[in-house]
């Protein structure tokens, strides 16, 4: 299927590795001119080279910490007009409610809510004026299934979800869509980190931890980042113009709720 994206321009945040990188790869393969972003210059340069080798397209890499306003403003200024915005950012680690002071909550909001909203605020007017825009927020399955250890991430990402839902009817007539992707248990560095935490807590091997996590998934396996990325590319497509305000659960069938 031709997704009608050739020549479009996209900013994919936090895309030097993991799900962000996978989304950048999927979009570049569809003919999108992709701007990737990360905090580490060497890692970003390696990602840029890998994307260009895989797709034959020129990729722009911009080093910026999305949690830093000045760096974020510089990123925005350097992007120019974009048609597709994929919001993504690392989240706070698991913890306990009693350990999270006011600064911890402010930091979580500063990672998983404010940066995405400010990027949307910057690029939305241009999308509306050009009558094409696709905004995809990579959030978390915890938005719909809150877990106490992930409270910081859950709260901030749910706030982003609510703010964007309020925008959906405002921009729909301008052919701008806003959707959220809710991943769980994709085979990325974060899952390796979670497995290592289990190793420390349970005194088991890394392989045993991975097997235990996989067993908790209905599909009995980790998700492939490429599966996630292809779904992202479709949400950005010309064909997805009537899909907006949705929370797409990508969890191997693990979510037990109806809505």
Commentary on this structure:
- This protein has 259 residues and is α/β, with parallel strands linked by helices.
- The chain folds into 2 domains: 9-186 and 224-250, NAD(P)-binding Rossmann-like Domain (Rossmann fold, 3-Layer(aba) Sandwich); 187-222, no CATH class.
- Helices cover 47% and strands 14% of the residues.
- Strands 3-2-1-4-5-6-7 form a 7-stranded parallel β-sheet, sandwiched between helices.
- Helix 6 (151-171) links the parallel strand 5 (133-138) and strand 6 (176-183).
- The mean pLDDT is 96.
CATH class bucket of the largest domain: Alpha Beta
- The total count of strands amounts to 7
Rg, alpha carbons:
18 Å
Give the second-level CATH assignment, the architecture of the largest domain.
Answer: 3-Layer(aba) Sandwich
The amount of beta strand, in percent, is 5-15%
Give the CA-CA distance, first to last residue.
Answer: 29 Å
Shape: globular
Structural class: alpha/beta
Order of helices and strands: EHEHEHEHHEHEHHHE
Tally of contiguous helical segments = 9
Q: Within the largest sheet, what's the order of strands?
A: 3-2-1-4-5-6-7
Helix content: 40-55%
Characterize the largest beta sheet: strand count, sense, and whether it forms a barrel.
7 strands, parallel
- Named CATH topology of the largest domain: Rossmann fold
Domain module tally: 2
């Amino acid at each position: 299927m031709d997704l009608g994206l050739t020549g479009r321009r996209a900013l994919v945040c936090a895309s030097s590795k993991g799900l962000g990188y996978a989304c950048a790869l999927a979009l570049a393969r569809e003919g999108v001119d992709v701007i990737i972003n990360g905090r580490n210059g060497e890692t970003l340069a390696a990602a840029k080279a890998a994307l260009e080798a895989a797709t034959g397209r020129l990729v722009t890499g911009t080093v910026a910490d999305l949690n830093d306003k000045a760096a974020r403003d510089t990123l925005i200024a350097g992007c120019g007009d974009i048609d597709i915005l994929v919001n993504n950012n690392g989240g706070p680690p698991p913890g306990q409610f009693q350990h999270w002071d006011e600064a911890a909550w402010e930091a979580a909001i500063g990672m998983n809510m404010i940066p995405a909203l400010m990027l949307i605020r910057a690029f939305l007017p241009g999308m509306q004026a050009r009558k094409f825009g696709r905004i995809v927020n990579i959030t978390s399955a915890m938005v719909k299934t809150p877990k106490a250890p992930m409270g910081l991430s859950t709260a901030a990402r749910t706030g982003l979800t609510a703010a964007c839902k309020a925008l959906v009817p405002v921009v729909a007539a301008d052919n701008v869509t806003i959707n959220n992707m809710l991943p769980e248990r994709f085979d990325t560095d974060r899952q390796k980190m979670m497995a290592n935490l289990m190793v420390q807590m349970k005194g088991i091997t890394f392989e045993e931890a991975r097997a235990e996590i996989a067993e908790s998934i209905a599909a009995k396996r980790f998700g492939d980042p490429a599966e996630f990325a292809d779904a992202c590319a479709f949400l950005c497509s010309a064909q997805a113009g009537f899909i907006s305000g949705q929370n797409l659960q990508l969890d191997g069938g693990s979510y037990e709720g109806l809505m």
